[in-house]
Amino acid sequence: EVQLVESGGGLVQPGNSLRLSCVGSGFTFGNSIMNWFRQAPGKGPEWVSRINNDGRMTSYAKSVKGRFIISRDNAKNTLYLQMSNLKPDDTAVYYCTTDVLGTTRRGQGTVVTVSS
Prior knowledge:
Layout: E1 3-7, E2 10-12, E3 18-25, E4 34-39, E5 45-51, E6 58-60, E7 68-73, E8 78-83, E9 92-100, E10 103-106, E11 110-114
Parallel strand pairs: 2-11
Antiparallel strand pairs: 1-3, 3-8, 4-5, 4-9, 5-6, 7-8, 9-10, 9-11
């Protein structure tokens, strides 16, 4: 069974940092492109970042470029999102996704709230 489990969310003040994790199982993690998405209250999903299978290629949404860093540890089947200089607009449920046999799978998400 494919599982993606996110963690690391919480309440932080503007300007602070947070690191999210996503642990994958039930598929070949090291062969999979991984994505982070987020969904703010009352809004649709927003793609945040992508990383290729070996971690050498990354891409970011304009809204987070220069503040967020995506990375992965294939030995631990874990995807990360290091978020810095957080802003209130970053408040959202963050979740990871991957495609397995043509079907997009996602985790349940972790809540990030940026507020003073």
